[in-house]
# Entry
Amino acid sequence: MGAISPFGLANGANVAERSQPIAHLDAHSSDRVRNGRRADGERADVQWRWRVTRLTTSREALAVSELRFVRRGFGAEAVEYQVAWDEQRRVHAARFADEIPDTVLLLEHPPVYTAGRRTADSERPLDGTPVVDVDRGGKITWHGPGQLVGYPIQKLPRPVDVVAHVRRLEEALIRTCAEFGLETTRVEGRSGVWVLGDPVERRPVLGGLSLDFDPRLTDEEFDPRLNGPEYAPSNAGQRREDRKIAAIGIRVAKGVTMHGFALNVNPDNKWFDRIIPCGIRDAGVASLANELGRDVTIAEVLPVVERHLTEVMAAAELRPRVIEPKAVEKVTEKTPAA
# Structure
């Protein structure tokens, strides 16, 4: 290992991406198989830069990866969604032109619902609350106070491996939660970071009915918004069900990523009860504060997220997506019989 930098990273060393167990899901979660800041403390747009030099002979890997964090606004200085979206586009253009290094925008938003391209009308607020339609993947979600939002704008080698990028974000957030004492994981087929619920036989009864009669098991269009608090996404922890603590939705344009992640630190999760979060009807949402049973602040979590993003993203060996060659079907020419 090389010399340790002031930020605790080894210069000249590759940091391997850790594997993470995946919980397998079928139709319903009940059926799954379980498996440098400024010294004065004042706000600064650019907090610090991390630079990790990696020694490699891979032509696909970047020889030097630099990651810049930009803290845009929190609390009373939370950034309006449209303002942040416009800034993402400006930073994206600059990164594509190689005018700046890979950059992560970190911020809070005032309350806002945003809908990815796959959002169905039946997943939006029933009362007509405005929703911002965006160009990322995924479905509808909520952003607001108590939620740390990160927009990593990173240039990836082509052909772009979108899944690998998502896995790196998940890994950084899984490590962040672990540092605060919360075990989280991935769920197969569902992006983001999850707190797994209890086995079905150990979960509390819903509404006085056995789980055998849980309408979500048979009704694909079951709407928790119309069925009382016992089905609300914000109460998934009380039901001991799977619950998402960090959502991820990205877009890649011209080989450069946009959008990113939202980590629930200490938000009012009842905001999620007005929508079908991420289009998932049989699970809910979680937060660090609720899961740990104590107050956790954005200020506490922010440097931890930055450190783990650095470990995972800046030190990862980026490779293009492997494209499997198409099978070539041999056609044997037959000679007609005489």
Summary: The longest strand covers residues 243-253. Confidence is low (pLDDT under 50) at residues 1-64. Residues 207 and 230 are 7 Å apart (CA to CA).
